[in-house]
Amino acid sequence: MTTPSPDELVKVYIKIRQCIKDKETEHKENIAALKDQFQLVSNELLEHCKVNNSEAVRTEFGTFYRTVRTKYWTSDWAALYDFIQAHNAAHLLEKRINTRSMEEFLTENPDLLPLGLNSDKAYTVQVRKPTTK
């Protein structure tokens, strides 16, 4: 059994990647109609709750109920950061590090390293199709 050449591996890599992309596109198209129908049914159930002033309804096939879901966002991050600092409310933000920004910061400040900072690096392979001239 011979080891495939890089040419053969790249050819197969691109073919598989395109197949995945095609199947993902097909999948998105297939479920788009279902999602639309799902939203229509959900809207009807919410309307039923609204009209009947009910929070939950038991049916032969299951119980549906409505809940309030609240999302928060800001159009002024500077003001929000000032607010958080003024009220010692760092817990209002999610705990995650922006990878790209941290990389830039560490590159610009090689002597500054936050305590407890961890990182993980792994090689990946990326393949580009040949350019046509």
Account of the protein in words:
This protein is mainly alpha-helical. Among the domains are: 6-65; 77-108, no CATH class. It contains 3 helices and 2 strands. A two-stranded antiparallel sheet has the order 1-2. A hairpin with a 2-residue loop joins strand 1 and strand 2. The longest helix is centred in the N-terminal third of the chain and has 46 residues, at 6-51. The model has no long low-confidence stretch (mean pLDDT 91).
Question: Which short descriptors sum up this protein?
Answer:
single chain, 133 residues, mainly alpha, two-stranded antiparallel sheet, 50% helix
Stretches with pLDDT under 50, minimum 5 residues: none
* Helical coverage, percent range: 40-55%
**Number of helical runs?**
3
The order of strands across the largest sheet is 1-2
Q: Could you say which overall geometry the principal axes of the C-alpha atoms support?
A: flat
Distance between the termini: 37 Å
Mean pLDDT across every amino acid position: 91
Kindly provide the radius of gyration, computed on alpha-carbon positions and rounded to a whole number of angstroms: 26 Å
Report the structural category: mainly alpha
The number of E-state strands comes to: 2
